[in-house]
Amino acid sequence: MRQLVAAFIGVISIIALLVHTLFLGIFLFLSILLRFLTPTAFARRYANPLIVEVALIWVGGILWWMRHVHRLDVEIDHDLELNMQQWNLIIANHQSWLDIFILFFVSYRKLPVLKFFIKSQL
């Protein structure tokens, strides 16, 4: 019975994440289209923040799912003063797939949206 419940939760989770991503993807593509079809000054002022906000809403939904469905409890202990108005370089020695989500937990709405650069040689 426990395995059946776990399988059911897994299927519902996959469907919910898919719907979440597809729904926000519509707004993301519309925002990107607005960015490319408008003059540069207009795009920087309105479309770029809209693109970032859609990305933040998507990340927020994933983090909510991890906290509430998987009951992931993350406790962050750091003395950094994080600020949305400055750029930061974060270097992570990835040990598992969870590292990226932990970085999102630390930086969500405290830093600009994270951008990842990955090299296979590293």
Which percent band covers the strand fraction?
Answer: under 5%
Dominant shape: globular
Q: H/E element string?
A: HHH
* Alpha plus pi helix count: 3
**Class by alpha and beta content:** mainly alpha
How far is the first residue's CA from the last residue's CA? 44 Å
Q: Please give the number of β-strands.
A: 0
Unreliably modeled segments: none
Mean pLDDT: 86
Fraction of helical residues: 55-70%
Radius of gyration: 17 Å
Major sheet size, sense and barrel closure:
none
Feature tags:
single chain; 122 residues; mainly alpha; 3 helices; 61% helix
Polypeptide structure, described:
Helix 1 packs antiparallel against helix 2. The chain has helices at 2-37, 40-68, 98-107. Helix content is 61%, strand content 0%. It has 3 helices and no strands. The protein is globular. The longest helix has 36 residues, at 2-37. It has 122 residues and is mainly alpha-helical. The termini are far apart.
Provide the fold topology.
Blueprint: H1 2-37, H2 40-68, H3 98-107
Helix pairs in contact: 1-2
Brief write-up:
The protein is mainly alpha-helical and 122 residues long. Helix content is 61%, strand content 0%. The chain is built from 3 helices and no strands.
